[in-house]
Amino acid sequence: MRDTRESRLLLILLVAVSFALITVDIRGGDASPLNGPRSAAASVFGPVESGVSGLVRPIADGLHSLRDSGSQGDRIRALEQQNQLLKQQLTSSDEVKGRNGEMTKLLGEAGAGQYTIKAAQVVAIGASQDFSWTITIDIGSNDGIQRDMTVIDGDGLVGRVTTVAPTTSTVLLADDPRFTVGTRMEGSGEVGFATGEGDAPMRVELLNGQADVKVGDRLVTFGSEDDKPFVPGVPVGKVTQIVNTPGELTKTLLVQPFVSFTTLDLVGVVVQPPATDPRYAVLPPKQAPPAPTPSAPTPSAPAPSGTSSAHAGKKN
Question: One biological-process term from Gene Ontology (predicted)?
């Protein structure tokens, strides 16, 4: 439309009419003469509006879903990371508790035997030299470790140091077939020699073939000259079987070691032996045998019924 005098007058007239209709509608309220035309317009345009809304709503919902799925995915990933972190913390906490327990046992054993030790961690286990049963620990000559030092853990004798490097050492385990250590029986003091048998119990030959031994008796190290390679009094194991060897000058025993060689973690190298032989002081106190379970009393049998004696009178 051209910008002419007539078009301007028409625009002013339309605006005036619009204001007039708005005023009439507001003042009329529910009786407004425009309600009819408004309803008619709603009837015509309402379905179109609903249809357009029906078409647009799935698109909007899809966009919202994509947005929410992205945020939910982020939250899920964050929760998974938190869960993994918690698992790691729990595992680390369990390891710390386990290490603290092992260290407590190790220090307790060293204190009971008056051994001066240097604690070490096992960093490798296996046949590291000539297919021997060995472990590698994380201390060496830089820490004052020397060949033929006794190695213990919180349960007893682990082995002896065979090879020393500046920062690591190799330990020959007591279950190695070439391992031999002098032993002393608890109580009787009978002396023998224990030899490693791999996965099987150690074999001990007592020098006294007539020694009085029973299953469950315990042994400790006898000690070596100048305390190398073995200091005295370290728990070795307990007797599980007495081998019948008639006519032999010695007595053969099978002994289960106190140490679990496949689960070694923290160990101690004895760098200074005790001033005196601790004998059996390092062995844990013997556990009292369980009290017998009292048996239920046996019900007594009923007494047999007897006949009452009648006192017969004499006739005069």
Answer: regulation of cell shape
CATH number at residue 187: 2.40.10.340
Closest CA to 98 of 292, 288, 289, 265: 265
Q: What is the pLDDT of residues 151-169, one digit of tens each?
A: 999 999 999 999 999 999 9
What's the Cα-to-Cα distance from 257 to each of 150, 186, 194, rounded to whole Å?
A: 16, 15, 10
Q: In the Cβ-directed half-sphere of 273, how many Cα atoms lie within 13 Å?
A: 20
Q: Are residues 150 and 67 in the same domain?
A: no
Q: Are residues 90 and 157 in the same domain?
A: no
Residues 91, 121 share a domain: no
> pLDDT tens-digit profile of 162-191?
999 999 999 999 999 999 999 999 999 999
Q: Is the pTM of this model over 0.70?
A: no
**Which residue bears the tokens 């290490």?**
99
